[in-house]
Write a structure and sequence with these properties.
Elements: H1 5-12, H2 14-22, H3 27-47, E1 52-54, E2 58-61, E3 64-67, E4 71-77, H4 79-86, E5 95-97, E6 105-110, E7 119-123, H5 127-141
Parallel strand pairs: 5-7
Antiparallel strand pairs: 1-2, 2-3, 4-6, 6-7
Helix pairs in contact: 1-3, 2-3
């Protein structure tokens, strides 16, 4: 989940602001520090963005990770349905990683009796693609002849 283009543009504006603040002291230093600050803020936003990763055995969203065998029904939402899923429809027993400015939501049921979490709910710009990748990984990981 990389930052949106508008978030990156807004962060890049930090550089010129720093340059303007330091310009009365020394315009060259202000310019150099402004460029460095703008680049660092943009790089920080990109580096700290949570990642959605599906491997042959696990789903990782941000720092959380779960085996594919514990995943149940996958639902994807956009628009008003996504607002409902991340707002009034969000269960207190759900684990969630929601980002402002990202419309899509993926909700996955957790089928582990020992886990108090009932669902994973997270933001994605491409929720249908995330669901398809998870389903594909589960189909690949399922043993031959199984009903998974």
């Amino acid at each position: 989940m990389s930052p949106s283009l508008w978030a990156l543009v807004s962060a890049a504006v930090c550089g010129p602001m720093v340059a303007l603040v330091l310009a009365p002291l020394d315009s060259v230093v202000g310019l150099i520090v402004g460029i460095a600050v703008g680049a660092l803020v943009v790089a920080g936003l990109i580096a700290l963005s949570p990642v959605i990763e599906v491997t042959g055995e696990r789903l990782r969203v941000g720092r959380a990770s779960i085996e594919l065998t514990y995943l149940g029904e996958i639902e994807t939402f956009t628009g008003d349905a996504a607002r409902q899923a991340r707002g009034p429809g969000l269960s207190s027993s759900s684990w969630h990683l929601l980002r402002g400015g990202i419309d899509g939501v993926v909700r996955i049921a957790i089928e582990d009796d020992d886990d108090p979490v009932t669902h994973w709910v997270f933001s994605s710009r491409t929720p249908a693609r995330v669901a398809a990748v998870i389903e594909s990984a589960r189909a690949t990981a399922a043993p031959a002849g199984s009903d998974a």
